[in-house]
Specification:
It is built from 14 helices and 17 strands. It has helices at residues 125-134, 147-150, 175-182, 184-198, 212-222, 242-250, 270-282, 312-318, 359-362, 375-379, 386-394, 398-403, 414-418, 425-438; strands at 25-27, 33-37, 47-48, 55-56, 61-64, 73-74, 79-88, 94-102, 161-166, 203-208, 228-233, 265-269, 288-294, 302-307, 326-331, 338-339, 353-358. The strands form 4 sheets. A 6-stranded mixed beta sheet has the order 1-14-13-17-15-16. The N and C termini lie far apart (49 Å).
């Protein structure tokens, strides 16, 4: 098979814990109530269109994109809007949400609910972009950037390579893995749709070597489609970072302060590509996603198809509840995810996983003095000096932080993972970036 590729600078090899890789996607079902945030994307919150007492169906538009960098929000259930107010989200902050009491499961009639795979793409460039926009599709790998904006290439840019990110390098998470296995052809057609937008015939599905079934399935299917191929990548974290993946697949370097399209590439998560297929070919808004519920303290780990707005606690209960030995609950993966402040927070378009971890996996040792071992420098996939970032952040040396390119940090956490002094280097990097962004040059 093809040679396995990877990026050249830094990286680490944490334990994978892919304990749900063989667990088929199951439908999570419907909770009694959903809480749908109007900001599930980078950019402005969507403008709310409904009020208390309104009846909605699955797929009903609840909030309209407010500006170019924003995204539509749709109902994931049918029922009655009971509240339109601020509710505590996963970070513990109040967020504008639409609360809906579930009453049945009636879909908007425009949505094609059949299992038939639609292969022909009869739509024009502008029609495809509009379908993606009106479906509220955003980047589902974590960034949440509105997809219509990302796929609209300026006239002065030339794209020659579309990369589908099927790496999923975070420990425990297997939602993308199972999606590639179970919805492989739809993902390939989604790649063809994006190829049509970009006017190219070069889509590469990059998959981590630890996903053999996804590799086999997609390799067989891509043989029937021109312009879509599979590239196997070595298992190394953070292989799924955009810049690292572009380097691995194409050998191109994205310069500091520039974007992937500046080197002729666009990267889309496979979950996003599947959502694009459903939006364009099935008229289906993005109102559900695949979520891995796992962790060493999860009694019955699973991969769920989950309606947006479902409380995380409801999913946890379906997996056996929170054990007495659960020390930490994380939204997302253990490397880049966030510790749950509110386990009743709703699933959003960006929620890839919920992890229940023991003290053994989540315990943080007391911070010690830096011994200048250089391991954080060796591990950084961007070539930064995290120990120096930590020092400058502690001493509020903003100009120095800017000079050593702290804004290039992708917040992967490799530095903190490898640090023998247990210094929370990722936290210092995040804080340093915030402080630099608050000041003007």
């Amino acid at each position: 098979m093809t040679n396995k590729k990877t990026f050249s600078i830094g990286g680490i090899h944490p334990d994978k814990y892919k304990i749900t890789s063989d667990c088929p996607i199951t439908d999570a079902g419907l909770p009694e109530t959903v809480y749908i945030p109007v900001k599930q994307h980078i950019g402005s919150p969507a403008k709310i269109l409904v009020k208390k007492g309104d009846k909605v169906k699955v797929g009903t538009l609840l909030a309209d994109a407010d500006g170019i960098v924003s995204s539509d929000v749709h109902s994931s259930v049918s029922g009655e809007v009971t509240k339109v107010e601020e509710v505590e989200g996963e970070f513990g902050y109040l967020e504008s949400m639409i609360t809906i009491k579930v009453e049945g499961d009636e879909f908007e009639p425009s949505i094609d609910r059949s299992d038939d795979i639609v292969k022909e793409i009869p739509f024009t460039h502008d029609e495809i972009i509009e379908k993606i926009r009106s479906a509220g599709v955003v980047g589902m790998g974590g960034a949440g950037y509105p997809t219509p904006v990302k796929t609209s290439v300026p006239d002065n840019k030339k794209i020659d390579c579309l990369i589908l990110n099927g790496i999923e390098c975070e420990p425990f998470l297997t939602a993308d893995d199972r999606l590639m296995v179970e919805k492989a052809e739809q993902i390939v057609i989604g790649a063809k749709i994006i190829n049509k937008i970009l006017g190219i015939q070069n889509a590469v599905i990059a998959i981590d070597e630890n996903k053999p079934l996804a590799i086999e399935t997609l390799t067989q299917i891509t043989k029937r489609y021109i312009g879509v191929n599979v590239q196997i990548c070595k298992t190394k974290y953070p292989q799924g970072g955009e810049r690292q993946l572009i380097k691995a697949v194409t050998g191109r370097e994205v310069p500091s302060g520039r974007l992937p399209m500046d080197v002729g590439c666009i990267v889309q998560n496979v979950g996003t590509v599947f959502a694009i297929y459903e939006a364009v070919m099935k008229n289906k808004p993005l109102f559900e996603r695949i979520v891995t519920v796992s962790g060493d303290e999860c009694k019955n780990p699973q991969n769920f198809r989950v309606r947006i707005g479902t409380p995380a606690s409801w999913l946890i209960e379906k997996c056996g509840g929170i054990s007495d030995d659960t020390a930490q609950i994380i939204f997302g993966g253990p490397m880049m995810g966030t510790s749950a402040v509110n386990v009743n927070a709703p699933i959003t378009k960006l929620t890839s996983g919920i992890l229940l971890l023991s003290d053994r996996l989540s315990h943080k040792e007391p911070e010690q003095d830096c011994i200048r071992c250089g391991k954080c420098v060796d591990a950084c996939p961007v070539g930064l000096r995290p120990f120096l970032i930590a020092r400058y952040t502690k001493e509020n040396m903003i100009a120095e932080l800017r000079d050593i390119n702290v804004l290039d940090c992708i917040e992967c956490g490799s530095c903190a993972y490898i640090c023998p002094a247990r210094i929370p280097l990722l936290d210092y990097c995040k804080l340093g970036k915030m402080e630099v962004k608050k000041t003007k040059k």
